[in-house]
Design goal:
The chain has 251 residues and is an alpha+beta fold. The protein contains five helices and 18 strands. 21% of the residues lie in helices and 32% in strands.
């Protein structure tokens, strides 16, 4: 089974800027065990909102907290949402809010891993036979009155990196904060370049690919959006603009 990373089209000829963020999010984490400070990148649930009765302040501040506090904040959301979903430090949720200008085509990119789909493109891609998409209206104000309405795609995690690839990266998971950390000290420039190239070409665990799927994120690398061959063919068939595909190795 083939899989393809979805990326912005570097050849897109028009300039645009989308300055937006999700309404709420989990803070980062500061771990005394492994020394990691920060949050994840790309884990997003725009269709979920802050439950009633939960104090908003902790989900509006990104300053890193302890792993113990992180677990408390995650548990409060999961109890209210009653969903078995993957949450980690830096997870964002709620609709995108912000401002934008320019022309970004059928697909707009807020940042790597945050993909928007224009209203006129939604029906075209769904009619091409892809699975039902979870589309969330954004709260983005465009400078141009002629700008189409854009929806954010809620794309769930679920794909895993291959064990051999994780070993090649020298990665290990912290038993306290759960973050998958990578080797920090590299011998020389050649080693750093080789490491950067290795990270640029991820390898997926074939057993994590479902039989029927179209779009998923990669666990621990949630900014990486992966498409099925069916989705790629549908995009080419209907001619969606401002995205490109790169095949990912599957083992």
């Amino acid at each position: 089974m083939k899989a393809y990373e979805i990326l912005p089209d570097d050849a897109w000829p028009y300039a645009y800027r989308i300055n937006a963020s999700h309404k709420w999010g989990l803070p980062g984490v500061k771990c005394s065990q492994c020394g990691f400070v920060g949050g994840g990148c790309g884990s997003q649930y725009p269709a979920l909102t802050l439950p009633e009765g939960i104090e908003a302040a902790p989900y509006l501040e990104g300053w890193p907290v302890t792993p113990e506090r992180q677990i408390e904040l995650q548990a409060a959301l999961l109890r209210s949402w009653k969903q078995d979903i993957r949450l980690g430090p830096g997870t964002d949720f709620g609709p995108l809010v912000g401002k934008a200008h320019g022309k970004c085509g059928d697909v707009g990119w807020v940042r790597l891993g945050t993909m928007l789909l224009a209203d006129q493109a939604v029906k075209r891609i769904c009619d091409a036979g892809v699975s039902p998409l979870t589309l969330v209206p954004t709260e983005i104000k465009w400078r141009s009155k002629k700008a189409p309405e854009y929806f954010e795609l809620q794309i769930l995690p679920g794909l895993r990196l291959a064990a051999s690839y994780i070993n090649a990266l020298g990665a290990s998971r912290c038993i306290k904060c759960g973050i998958l950390g990578y080797k920090k000290e590299l011998e020389n420039r050649a080693a750093r370049l080789a490491d950067a190239e290795l990270k640029y070409y991820p390898v997926l665990d074939a057993t994590s690919l479902p039989l029927q799927w179209d779009l998923l994120r990669v666990d621990d690398w949630e900014a990486t959006i992966v498409a099925s061959e069916r989705f790629k063919n549908a995009v080419i068939q209907v001619g969606l603009t401002n995205l490109t595909f790169r095949e990912i190795k599957v083992l």
